[in-house]
Amino acid sequence: MTEHPNSRSEAPRHLVVAGHGMVGHRLVEALRSRDTDGQWNVTVLSEEPRPAYDRVALSSYFDGADEAALRLPDLDDAVDLRLGVTATAIDRAGRTVTTSTGETLGYDALVLATGSYPFVPPLPGHDAEGCFVYRTLEDLDAIRAAAQAAAAGGTGHGVVIGGGLLGLEAANALRLLGLTPHVIEMAPWLMPMQIDEGGGALLGRMISELGVEIHCGTGVGGVEVEDGRAVAVTLADGTRIPTDLVVFSAGVRPRDQLARDAGLAVGERGGVVVDLACRTEDEHIWAVGEVACIEGRVLGLVGPGNAMAEVVADRLLGGEAVFPGADTSTKLKLLGVDVASFGDAKATTPGALEVVLNDPVKGTYSKLVVSDDARTLLGGILVGDTSKYALLRPLIGSELPADPAVLLAPEGAGGEGGGIGVASLPDSAQICSCNAVTKGAICTAIHEGAADVPAIKACTKAGTSCGSCVPALKQLLAASGVAVSKALCEHFDQSRSELFEIVAATRITTFSELVARYGRGRGCDVCKPAVASILASQGNGHILQGEQASLQDTNDRFLANMQRNGTYSVVPRIPGGEITPEKLIVIGEVARDFGLYTKITGGQRIDLFGARLEQLPKIWKRLVDAGFESGHAYGKSLRTVKSCVGSTWCRYGVQDSVGLAVELELRYRGLRSPHKIKAGVSGCARECAEARGKDFGIIATEKGWNLYVGGNGGFTPRHAELLLADADHATLIKVIDRFLMFYIRTADRLQRTAAWIEAMDGGLDHLRSVIVDDSLGICADLEEAMAKHIADYTDEWNGVLQDPEKLARFTSFVNAPETPDPTISFTVEREQPVPTAPRPVALGMPSIGVPAATAPSAPAATPAPSATSVTTR
């Protein structure tokens, strides 16, 4: 009887893994965790000078992450990891591998995990100085150095050849480095391998609005070189794009030369041919990841690679696992735009139907591909809003629980997935495609004691790669009756309110100190802004001072709201809506001189739109000199205190509502909070200031003031509820102080006051007992905290204008600070400048038919600017 090649022998056998990328790392992790008997000694050859790192998150290297943050968990000490060493030859007969150091290693099993290399088209000038690929940390270091060198006197532009996933990641990197990126894609739209023309058109439009130049449907003629350096890229149509650097992202090719030299079979388009056990034609050699050709395909995603790694680990220990098939679903954020595709996204299945919801106004595109009877989900595409990805992707191949159009309906038009939840999915539904984890496996882990998301990750590996399935994990925890963790994020086990108390008690003043003492890792876009808000609300200096600046989100980072075309809005504070003619004239002059769109807001302020980044300090210098302050329209803080004219002018008014509104707005200005705060003061019961639609609102009575709390407008309007009746002025101010500080201390991240009160045990009655009756004995502390805020307040924009270091942040191009962004353009409507409109989008009513590729042509629809398109093709 022939011995199984992986049957147990007395002495440990030797496994050599050629390659230490993400998939090779996963293979070794899986094998070591299961090899409890010590059947294998493992040697890993790593070409790079560092252990494996998360290549999926490579672009975060330009946004604050360093090598340590990207590194994958260390392999255990029993693994012989050789950095900077490659396999150069395989002797199949002798079962040895020769390394780049000249050493010969014997093996009982060899796994090829050499991955792929970037394809650089052989264009004229492709190898000139200033041409790069986007693959390793060394590549990124070289790109950063070139961009910094160009800042001294370059063009301010960078070209990316290739508009796929990596190409758009590279474009974002150039943008973060201060260059204007140009993306060249031969296909008619971006990401042609993942999304269709409709999704690609929306993605291109949204990315263009962020200042990225898109050139689709054209090839590259060559790279123009002067003195050995790339200076321009010429398109196939003759267009010349001056540039400081060129990044090639035109796809990858399997690194299969080692296998070719050893005589192993390779696929027609490259890749080592393997069977469903991931074994090559040589029973002692396996291949995983991007170097493997399985079922005639080379798969370039980490999910299928991880599945191959799991199969090989099982086989090496005598198991019979087979490759489950490739799930090429993907969900990611590209330059701030959410994109997802799953299953048969292009409707290649015979008879497949497409159900499309295209809303160019909201900037969303959703498509479901269903079977010819519209009962089975085959795939889909989501652009702009991917919130339903975790719900829809596991339904692939399953009978739909609702009408396809209902599943795509926006919130408020059918609920989340038409009332469908993750808990209703069958146990066989795959929740985590990266690691092939089913709902059943997750539920089993929960039943066996995994009580939070980190525990589920540890037990099942779900959520440990791209993280897109984490919302589904939380839903399954909640459905099982397990109390979901209140942890702020994966870096802090504490809730926001707990972190607030920690900062207050320890007097910690920086995020780095807080995460070092009470958290882990380097933080994320959830915890950084939340901690920044906590630090700011406790009087920790200017929000752009030192480390604080890097924690802020887009709006706070530049003390202005970014608009859809990449410009910013300017909103000076107008307390209570009261303004002198002189100040009104200044606002008009500023708007006129800088060419700004001007509008009166619902909060009784004047909003100036269309300011370029480099214009903001000049605009605010004029406003500050005239006595204006920041209106904090960009921050999670007090926005406005709206008022009617009250008893000063109105014959129905019973109290001075304007005076009180001005007092309150100046008292609470700049107060950072979990979410925005709006207030209103009405001078009588006629309620002209709409005070009951505010987070706190005051309505005058004959005896004093009624205080209402917990109201808001927006998507889910709430009427505020009466907290205090007929209060005198001093009592009113004292209770509002307490209310706001109690909210800031105890609310969750991004929780409005209405939701905060609703979630509170005892609701409004409990709130009243705490801040009116002082049942917890904390009112003195709350009042003291508010007094400190009032005493410490300084205007944020005035602080910027006094500090050259802060002022230096406000440039569109680091190498040309005074140069306006050429991608921003305006037209005139109603005598005011407005952003140049994107190209019209065809709109239509719902219909069902065959895929667009086979459908008969139809007349173009007349654009309807405010409509939502719901079409099926």
Automatic annotation (TrEMBL):
Q: What GO MF terms are annotated? A: 2 iron, 2 sulfur cluster binding; 4 iron, 4 sulfur cluster binding; flavin adenine dinucleotide binding; heme binding; metal ion binding; NADP binding; nitrite reductase activity; sulfite reductase (ferredoxin) activity
Q: Which UniProt keywords apply?
A: 2Fe-2S, 4Fe-4S, FAD, Flavoprotein, Heme, Iron, Iron-sulfur, Metal-binding, Nitrate assimilation, Oxidoreductase, Thioether bond
Cofactor: record remark: Binds 1 siroheme per subunit.
Q: What is its EC number?
A: 1.8.7.1
Binding residue positions for [4Fe-4S] cluster: C644, C650, C684, C688
> Segment Disordered: which positions?
848-873
**Binding residues for siroheme, per the UniProt record?**
C688
Its assembly, as annotated, is: Homodimer which associates with NirD.
Q: Which family is annotated? A: Belongs to the nitrite and sulfite reductase 4Fe-4S domain family.
The protein's name:
assimilatory sulfite reductase (ferredoxin)
Organism classification: Bacteria, Bacillati, Actinomycetota, Actinomycetes, Kitasatosporales
